[in-house]
Amino acid sequence: MALMSLFFSKYLFVLAALLPIINPPGLVPIFISMTARNSKQQRAFLARRIAMYCFLLLLGSMYVGSFVLEFFGVSLPVVQLSGGLLISLAAWRMLNDSPAESTQPSSEPVRQENRDELKQRAFYPLTFPLTVGPGSISVSITVGASLTVTGKPMIKYMLVPMASLAAVLSLSVLVYMCYRHADKLLGYLGQTGSVVFLRLSAFILMCLGVQIMWEGVEQLFVELIQSNANLLHR
């Protein structure tokens, strides 16, 4: 019972940390807008790929993200600044799309893309930075560092990793379900409601991108001030 309690506590801890910042239902209109000229079959393929990439990115960030950043000498504020810029640019393109491009089938033919092109677009920009952005990567790295526990090897090397893996898998499945049934979820709003919701979502995404950039700039300024203060004390 103690092991099960620890498993579910770690599972809920990881899920509660990542679910609000990724927010798969809130990403539905963004996915619709970015795949407006793809067929239903292509969208289903993209949904599967995005869910798989989401799982790999989150799990990789949780366990090896801090080591990778340290290896390349990249700090989290720089990741936030760069990722926030990418998100803001994507939101700007969405704000400048015509309603026909965002909410209903276009008069232009369906975009013809092979599987390799779909795989590339599924990773960028649909998985990174729109689904798994710098914010969720930062949270994943932080969560991975906080999951370190002392005790028996079975708890440290089996139970806790399995709990975090189950949480990330659950979140990836939720991403797949929301994207796979994006048309139905957004269809309840109607055409006018969809246009309004898409514009609001693009604006909110722009605000999130600027917020992430600001957090990165703020942290860089703090580090700069601290380094200057240390130099003055020498």
From TrEMBL:
Sorted keywords for this record are: Cell membrane, Membrane, Transmembrane, Transmembrane helix
Q: What is its main location?
A: membrane
Give one Pfam family, short name only.
MarC
Compartments, as annotated in UniProt:
Cell membrane
| Membrane protein topology class | Multi-pass membrane protein
What cellular-component terms does GO give this entry? plasma membrane
For the keyword Membrane, the answer is yes
The coiled-coil segments of this chain are none
Span-the-membrane segments of this chain are 12-34, 46-65, 71-92, 122-145, 157-176, 196-214
- Family stated for the protein in its record: Belongs to the UPF0056 (MarC) family.
| Protein name (record) | UPF0056 membrane protein
